[in-house]
Amino acid sequence: MTSATDSPSPAVPRLIATDLDGTLLRDDKTVSERTVAALAAAEEAGIEVFFVTGRPARWMDVVSDHVHGHGLAICANGAAVADLHAGGKLVKVRPLARDIALDAVHALRAAAPGTSFAVEMTTGIHYEPAYPPLHLDPGATVAAAEKLLREEAPGTGAPVLKLLAHHAELVPDDFLALAHAAAGDRAVFTRSSPTALLEVSGPGVSKASTLALCCAERGISPAEVVAFGDMPNDVEMLRWAGTSYAMGNAHPAALAAASGRTASNGEDGVALVIERILAERRSPGTAR
Predict the structure, then answer these.
(1) Can you tell me the distance from the alpha carbon of 120 to that of 193, in angstroms, rounded to the nearest whole number?
(2) CB 260 within 8 Å of CB 244
(3) Mind listing the pLDDT tens digit for each residue in 109-141?
């Protein structure tokens, strides 16, 4: 893997795909002035920018002012595409089937006693009493996961975007490995938190697969995409993109998956690469 200063970038990239937390955003969850300027310059140069995140659409206000052109963002690890120009309206949903979510709950309860769950639906988040109170909706339903996932009649409930599983004692990567062993053949398990918090999506649903769908709709090939990420939920996207960068603060799995490495999120690593790409496009002799 090479650094941002010597890793080749596409001569004419058509799309930039960037994670948010730990990647585009600084640790205080803000977007620096340098990064805002770089994103605007990329759009002005005709390069589309997609935010690709594990966040639900309702948490996208931090970047909604910096979406240009299409206005779309890939949320919930690929389970939804939101139109940020329309207040976060979901325009594509790739749900987690409730029976598969229940299978994951039962498998994790057996493999890791003490696991607590939350269910992220298109209508908001609902959670178990033992689930840690982080960014939770005070109006949410609080009940056992089995009850949260039950429908009075098939197809009557809101689509489930992802299941969240938290363990208070396990090492995060150990918890992820345990989940893969217990039910990895039924659902997609990943993580993006520094704590033992797993995110469970439907089969085949990931940041990479939804980004691929959005790119195909635009006639954009993987070779024309530059991607940025820092955590295990970015790994598939970093591998899929023709050019990819792990942040200086990235998890080892992201570092191994990316074709290049840039500075940390606190050092405007995404902006640094965008600035270099645009400078190369302006330089005499650059392929176009």
Answers:
(1) 16
(2) yes
(3) 999 999 999 999 999 999 999 999 776 677 788
